[in-house]
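cron nightly-structures :: item 1 of 1
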Amino acid sequence: MSQDIDFEGEDTSAYSDTVKALSSGLLQIYEPTLNEVKADLSELLNKQEEVQKALEKEKQVYSTQDVQQINEMVIKIKYYREKAIRIKTQMHQVHQRTKSLRGKALDMQELKVNQCASKLQQLHYEESLVANNKRTPNKKS
């Protein structure tokens, strides 16, 4: 048998049996756990590959044509939103104009009623003057 000699010149053959026994003991302790971890890791990698393949399939389902349609719809949504905002502001402006025109119309109606009332009053006054003139006879000398 050959003897193991380390760099300092000591005989290491006596330690080799102890080292082998300790290493086999450590392997017996940790090897089942490591094998379980290795199996779990390989299962995880397989599942990850399956998920990646499923994602690729889903990605391919949405073809470029579908993406283009979605982009067109987004552009239309922006356009119609802006259009709705413009219509809203125009409706607000129309409402304000209508409100002011109603106020002016009411003022004009009140003015017309007052004018008609004053004309009617003036007409009654003139009629009463004419009636008074007819009652009193004109004296001729």
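cron nightly-structures :: done
The mean pLDDT is 86.
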